[in-house]
Amino acid sequence: MNTHFNKLYMKTFLNAIVLFLLVSLNLLSYSQNFVLPLYLGEIPNSKHSGQKEKVEITKIITIIRNVQEPDIAVYLPSKQIATRQAVVICPGGGYRWLAYDLEGTDVARYLNTIGVAGIVLKYRLPNAENWVDPHKVPLMDAQRAMRVIRYNAEKWNIDTEKIGIMGFSAGGHMASTLGTHFDYGNKDSKDSIERKSCRPDFMILMYPVISFVDTTCIRPSSGKTLLGENPDQSMKNYYSNELQVQNDTPPTFLVHADNDGTVKVEHTLLMYKALHKKKLPVELHILSEGYHGFGLGLPEGGHELGLGLENNHVASWTENLRLWLNWLNKK
Questions:
Q1: Can you list the alpha helix ranges (DSSP code H) found in the chain?
Q2: CB 3.0-4.6 Å disulfide test: which of 154, 171, 275, 301 passes with 295?
């Protein structure tokens, strides 16, 4: 009796192990996520101030302030549906804080559903106390993120020529800055990551800040946070990205609400005109509603005026983006 019981027990135990292994292997084929630091060792352009990072969870969004150690949260889609495209996502927050879920992790999860890797960039903010040249740190982190992803592309099932940048509001300014202020890598660097190009293969700009000089645009507070109270004209020109579009600026997808009272739609229109003038591929979507900060347009979006209900009209931009990414993937 005991021998029969032992055999039955062992069979059940072995079956359980086999089932566990099968489930584990199956889970590996589904989407996965993990976090990686942008820099190993000393963080460039930094100084020690003792300031601490702060995470604030509100009823609407998760806010991160005083970012100390920039990183990327990598969300990979299942291999069965992967397009091998990837998007670096830059949450907004006026360069003062990051709307980390509304314009970051929520978007990454959506991208995974259409087969695209979503990589949320927790970037340093110029209003923190730790930086030598504060205005340089957001762009430095965006450039580094692009290089890190290209360096790891093969193991993450990403095509090195299908990596884009996406940004919301001030994050849209940062994304458009990367799209107009990039390099093709430092081939002489001892750091193999720095040898990689930081040029994005496409841009997705969501209600972005673009210009700090055009008179049709209300100067957003993010400009003061990034550049200081009285920046010189050359600095304002350098970060007014409609002035920085070049022949190798990447294809761009633009979305803005016409009734945005925080970042006027003229910012997006200026960028569209600059891209169109260079005959660069660009797609523009102006929504008649949505205000500012609508994110995916799903519940808890549109925090500017407390737009807390799902709005399928506003959310329609996500389907347009899917179609655009699919078109881009076939080029």
A1: 2-28, 106-113, 137-152, 170-180, 221-227, 233-238, 266-277, 312-315, 317-330
A2: 301
| pLDDT tens track for 44-78 | 999 888 899 999 998 888 999 999 999 999 999 99
- Written as six digits, the tokens of 296 are 């995916």
| Domain of 199, in residue numbers | 31-330
Whether residue 261 has pLDDT greater than 50: yes
SS3 42: coil
Q: What is the 8-class DSSP label of residue 115?
A: T
The single-letter DSSP state of residue 271 is H
Asked if 115 and 178 sit in the same domain, the reply is yes
For the stretch 109-162, pLDDT in tens is: 999 999 999 999 999 999 988 899 999 999 999 999 999 999 999 999 999 999
DSSP of 94-108, one letter per residue?
Answer: TTTEEETIIIIIHHH
Q: How far is CA 140 from the centre of its chain?
A: 14
Domain count, the chain: 2
Q: How far is CA 290 from CA 138, 258, 316, in A?
A: 27, 8, 11
Q: Quick one: 153 and 301 in the same domain?
A: yes
Q: Are residues 17 and 1 in the same domain?
A: yes
